[in-house]
Design a protein that fits this description.
Elements lengths: L10 H15 L6 E7 L6 H13 L2 E8 L6 H6 L8 E4 L9 H10 L1
Parallel strand pairs: 1-2, 2-3
Helix pairs in contact: 1-2
């Protein structure tokens, strides 16, 4: 988990961490899933989208959870695996995550 206390998040670092962990230590016979949860735009959208493409190219299915209106963006859709509508979830705040648990579990199982 990559935590950020600032206004922007280093989402590309989180995606790189997902990629590196799964490609170096992930079970080759398992479906690889990465979940990105954020409430802010990334510090570098270009790097974030490149890291997402790299992860998807390695066979990692990416799901995104945008928390609050600041996180909902074309960038989040660009991170999510295809189709983004099935692999993206938007919630109003962190308290809403528990209410969205069933939707997230379904998205994880469908991937």
């Amino acid at each position: 988990m990559i935590r950020s206390g600032g206004v922007l998040t280093n989402t590309s670092a989180a995606l790189t961490s997902i990629h590196d962990e799964l490609t170096s230590r992930g079970r080759p016979d398992a479906n690889w899933l990465g979940v990105v949860v954020t409430n802010r735009p990334s510090v570098d959208a270009t790097a974030t989208l490149a890291a997402a493409r790299r992860a998807r190219a390695a066979g990692i299915t990416l799901l995104t959870v945008a928390v609050g209106p600041s996180a909902v963006s074309p960038e989040m859709a660009g991170i999510a695996s295809w189709p983004p509508a099935r692999n993206s979830l938007n919630v109003t705040d962190y308290d809403s995550l528990s209410a969205a648990e069933a939707s997230l579990a379904q998205a994880l199982c469908d991937s």
